Amino acid sequence: MIVLVNPRATRPKNRRLPLSVLALGAVLEGREEYAIVDGNVDEQPEKTVLSLIDKNPVELLGLTVMPGPQMAAAMEISRKIRALRPHVPIVWGGYFPSIYADATLNASYVDYAVRGQGENTLIELLEVVRGVRSPDSILGLSFKDRTFGMHRHNAERPMQGPDAFPWSPFHRLRVEQYLRPSFFGERTAAHHASIGCPFRCSFCGVHAAYGNRELMESPDRTVAILSHLKQTYGADSVQFYDMNFFMREDHARELAEQMLPLGMKWWCEARIDTMSRYSDATLDLLRRAGCKMIFFGAESGSDWALKEMEKGITTEQTLTVAERMQQHGIIPEFSFVIGNPRDPERDTRETLAFIRKIKTLNPASEIIMYHYTPVPQRGAMYGQIDGKINFPATLEEWATKRWMDFTLRIDPNTPWLKRKTKKLIENFETVVASRWPTVQDIAAPKWSRNLLRTLSAWRYWFRIYAFPHELRLAQRFIQLRRPKQESL
Question: Could you name the domain of life of the organism this protein comes from (predicted)?
Answer without folding.
Answer: Bacteria
